[in-house]
Amino acid sequence: MNKWVYVGLSSILSFFAGIGIVFLLAMGRAAAKAPAVRALYNNGFILGVLLFLIMFALGFLLKEGESKSDSEEEISFKDLVMELRETIRKASHSHDVRHTFTDYLKSMWVDESSKLMVERALKEVLDEFHDEAWLFALYAELLMSDGRWADAEVMIKRAWAAAPTDEYVRQVVREWIDARSEKDPFRVSEMVRKLREVYPEGWLYLLEAEHMMRIGRTGNIEEILVEAYKLSDDNMALLEIISAYLGYLASEGREPQMFAFFEKLRNAADKPLIYAIEAKLSVLARDYERAVDAVRKLKESGVSPEIVDAVIADIMNGARSDGREDILAKLFE
Q1: Which H or E element spans position 193?
Q2: Residue 289 Cα distances to 22, 131, 213, 261, 284, angstroms
């Protein structure tokens, strides 16, 4: 209806413009006799009518073309929504379907003309499928590609609430945090805190600790690492971030704090990983005998060979650099 209003107004304005044009051209004949003025008025009226008809016809054709275009767009939108609903139901049982359709929507998002339709379709089905975490994660990823970080944050929170252990959800959470970590560190900290309130997943504590190390804010990092140590089963990730923090303390000459932190971890949970951490700590303190003893206990604990190999490699590097060749033999006794 608004388009018809525009067409009508432009046509009426054209009508009066026709009259005005003729009178403006006739300003030099101000002294003309009344019959001449009447003739000018008649000519202006005719010109105005012609312009009115032309503009109205053009407006009508434009409206018809737009109506047809809108109709085709609406059909495409309904088809997309129907396809999206069907795919979401299938994706609940097939990750291949989910990945295929995710790639399809990402390809559509690249095109500006189809992006609006994709976003409209997603909004149409989000509330209907509120427990499909991958859908919110996908929407968040699309929003991030446009730099719409605040909107993406909202979708990430909904995805996390639906499935905090879903790998795709975790991937998108990490992408958001990595992208914003240095540009908006306080916002990231607040975001992680809110996610923890929903579900205190150990992996999330690890991610927060990485963020704190990256921006150099280690105020309460020990509390975060202790929680990660208690909750997370990702031993390699735990070992890497805890080793990085211990290395940071060593570089700052804060050895007493290193050992105090180690005791916090030991008291927090009874885990075989503590022997790997003890070995790393001992290398930093140049106490290789203790490191070798920790490796022996680590092997007996049954942790993965990957962890054992990483710790042994660290001890060997430290022993070689310190000229402790005797330690190398003890490692493999």
Answers
A1: helix 185-198
A2: 106, 53, 30, 21, 12
